[in-house]
Specification:
- The protein has 365 residues and is mostly beta strands.
- The chain has two domains: 107 residues, no CATH class; 176 residues, Jelly Rolls (Sandwich).
- The protein is 12% helix and 38% strand.
- A seven-stranded antiparallel beta sheet has the order 6-5-15-14-17-12-9, with no helix packed on it. The protein has a six-stranded mixed beta sheet with strand order 1-20-21-22-19-2, with no helix packed on it. Strands 4-16-13-18-11-10 form a six-stranded antiparallel beta sheet, with no helix packed on it.
- The longest helix has 28 residues.
- The protein is elongated.
Length: 365
Amino acid sequence: MATIAYADTLEHTPLPIDAQDIVTRARIVIAGVRAGRDPNILNVLSDDRGGSTGAFTHVSYLAAPIVHEGVDALDSAYHATRSFALPDGVAPFLDPTDTAIPEPTSYGMSNPGSPSAVRDGDGTTYAQNDGTGDTIELRYWTGVSPTVQFVGFKIKYAANTQASILPVTGFKGHIAVAMTIKRATALTSPIYTVTGYYGCEDAETNEFYALLPFDARGLAENQGSPSADDTLITEIDLYSLPGSLAAAGDLKVYEFYPLVLDTALLDGIAAQNLRLPASAPQRVTVRGYVAPDKTHTITGWPGGDYTGAVAKQTYGGGETIIDFEQKGAAGGTPQENAQVANYQAQSTRAKIATAAYPVTLGQRQ
């Protein structure tokens, strides 16, 4: 931050506030549909508890986008929402060793350590079936009052199931990963469940990940007035059914953990995309050269020292021209021209974003 004496300022002119590019709610799109590996079988069920039987019926799948929102306090006044794609190369999930990720429960498997071998972040350590029976299980779940929400899972394993892979009636002789998403709700409201079954192949080592969004119709905001227990419950299971395993070590699981959004990381990304209107933008002309920086402070400014964010800075003819808070027009150009150019640029970007949104929302990441 450069410090400038007010005695060195040659001129300061207020700039008209340009409020065309305001974002008070930034929505970061993680995934709009299933991503990673597709399930071998997908069940989506609706239960209208208003009926006499409460029987489930199959419905078509309408994926609710997996998003994270950053909201500024001014959103209540401006309601300016914009969606942004997750930046390339950014992993939006917590590390498997994070304390927010629960430990799995296990049956028929050795699962030493805390964190267990399947979520210790080491791809060489593993849990394995203990050979005491055909059936094994590793299970995570969020509970009825979840503090985290699973949006998918990652698995790395080696298997000898002595059978063919899914889909086969009854699933006998297979290991499978099931990710189930439920909506806990009052009995007077519909319940939607989404269950994806991912068969695992015989292999020395195999790994994949999957994202499975919830059905949008089951979200609390689409159910009228939500009740106190409106929440999503998610669980993932790795299991085998009778006949699939014979001896200890037929199944080795190196990694198996739920994918949980890294909200702290995503909060930062969302914050970078918020755009608030300038409060008092102005152009200040200063004698001499001022080194560029994000902010400058002018000492001795009438009414007290002034510190402002630098939007644009140019140097020439022994003078530095600094635009604080927002960019003004080029020297000698009417400010109205800059506003028109900015509007045209914003309009073009908005059209491109609108056209590209279905691609961004639906792409498999």
